[in-house]
Design a protein that fits this description.
Layout lengths: L13 H10 L3 H4 L5 E2 L10 H13 L10 H20 L9 E5 L2 H16 L5 E4 L9 H12 L5 E4 L22 E7 L11 H8 L5 E4 L11 H4 L3 E5 L10 E5 L18 H17 L1 H19 L5 E3 L21 E6 L4 H10 L2 E2 L1 E3 L12 E5 L6 H14 L1
Parallel strand pairs: 1-11, 3-4, 3-5, 5-6, 6-7
Antiparallel strand pairs: 2-8, 7-8, 9-10, 10-13, 12-13
Helix pairs in contact: 3-9, 4-9, 5-6, 10-12
């Protein structure tokens, strides 16, 4: 039994058959059976349905959106509007008539847009914001940039760091009450950590800051990997990248609740949207919905548990993130499991060398500092990130290689 509960085996049980059917829908995966793609936290592979949707659009109705009255242009404009609605549905938006969806090139641009176009006009002299200093730097730099922009206007805003628990890598919710004050106006947080793979328990941040403070959520590692319900999360912005959710690169979205603070409206003239990418995003969300985000999350959590259960017993390896969860077995609550991400180091082999060694055995992994912001890990590491197209056999082959290096 893994840390995520019983893992579907390699036989003919229902889950294994379900996964095999989905795996066969990824042309790049089936075309390279000798390779194991284990870098889905960087970008996901694309199912045939997404590739077909883009091909059909580009060969039947490719045109600009909102700039013409002929049928192709009208169809493209309609597709963009439908995708906005599809994003709301996928995120289980409880008030879609009030919220907004704005397309971006990805999470980084989306977070910067929230910082420049919404946060800067919203804050006043003496306000405070809480931001993560050990998450992806894309969820730190925009808020520091907003502070600089405000300082240039003579507005003094204090940036306070979200506290972390050293052992788990999670936010330290126990001391948040001592940090939150009457001038706390905004919180930036992460849904699933891109290094440690854990759910960051945003509901505890909401409990600490109260019902009125806006929260912006970096959901790059959760949308497309597990169910995301903005009603339950009670956040004000959800920002994600389409390319991590099986859509094409250069596509992302900002979902804005528009209930706390002003309505979010991106600044400046909005040029031509990435219409092919938006089409791919709608197809990807349709595919993910049909596959079942909850089933995908169970599958990847099972693979992750299988990997950590054996890797933690190999002496040369250090698994980053929550150490208590590694020995918790099936009793571990769902929110504390690693969601498809396992990051580790070898005591004697540098991480970049270990990455090359693994590639020589057919495994594609991430091996560097993982774009972690200033207070994160100082040394490089190897990250294995899994998705529904990965198999038990691939994880077992990886473990065999890692064991041989131990």
């Amino acid at each position: 039994m893994s840390a995520a509960g019983p893992l579907p085996g390699t036989g003919h049980d229902e889950e294994a058959l379900w996964q095999r059917e989905l795996r066969e829908q990824f042309p790049i995966v089936t075309a390279h059976p000798e390779s194991a793609y284990l870098d889905s936290a960087a970008t996901s592979q694309k199912p045939r349905a997404v590739l077909d949707a883009v091909q059909t659009y580009l060969t039947t109705s490719n045109a600009n959106a909102g700039r013409g009255t002929y049928p192709w242009a009208n169809r493209t404009t309609e597709l963009v509007a439908q995708t906005r609605q599809r994003v709301k549905e996928f995120l289980h938006d409880p008030a879609p008539d009030r919220s907004g969806v704005h397309f971006t090139s990805g999470t980084t641009e989306g977070l910067r847009g929230v910082a420049r176009d919404w946060l800067v006009p919203y804050l006043t002299d003496g306000d405070e914001i809480l931001v993560p200093h050990a998450d992806h730097r894309a969820n730190l730099d925009p808020w520091l940039e907003a502070q600089r922009l405000l300082a240039e206007r003579g507005v003094d805003v204090r940036v306070r760091a979200l506290p972390y628990q050293e052992v788990s890598g999670d936010y330290d919710h126990r001391v948040l009450d001592g940090i939150v004050g009457p001038r706390t106006r905004f919180v930036a947080a992460t849904h699933v950590h891109h290094v440690y793979g854990g759910d960051m328990n945003v509901h505890r941040i909401r409990a600490a800051v109260g019902p009125d403070v806006p929260i912006c959520l970096d959901a790059a590692q959760s949308v497309g990997h597990l169910p995301v319900d903005v009603g339950e999360l009670d956040v004000d912005f959800v920002v994600f990248s389409g390319h991590k959710a099986m859509a094409l690169p250069g596509t992302g979205a900002v979902w804005a609740r528009n209930a706390r603070g002003p309505v979010f409206r991106p600044g400046g003239w909005q040029g031509t949207p990435n219409t092919a990418g938006i089409v791919s995003l709608r197809a990807a969300l349709d595919w993910l919905e049909a596959a079942g985000p909850d089933r995908i999350a169970r599958w990847t959590a099972g693979l992750t548990g299988r990997l950590t259960d054996r890797l933690r017993h190999l002496d040369p390896y250090e698994i980053l993130g929550c150490q208590v969860s590694l020995a918790a077995g099936s009793a571990l609550p769902a929110a504390q499991r690693r969601h498809g991400i396992v990051t580790f180091r070898h005591r004697d082999i540098p991480s970049d060398d270990l990455g090359f060694i693994l590639y020589s055995h057919g495994f594609m992994v991430r091996a560097d500092n993982l774009c972690q912001a200033g207070r994160g890990e100082k040394d490089g590491s190897v990250r294995v990130s899994l998705h529904v197209y990965n198999t038990v056999e691939e994880v077992d082959r990886l473990l065999s290689v890692l064991e041989s290096l131990a």
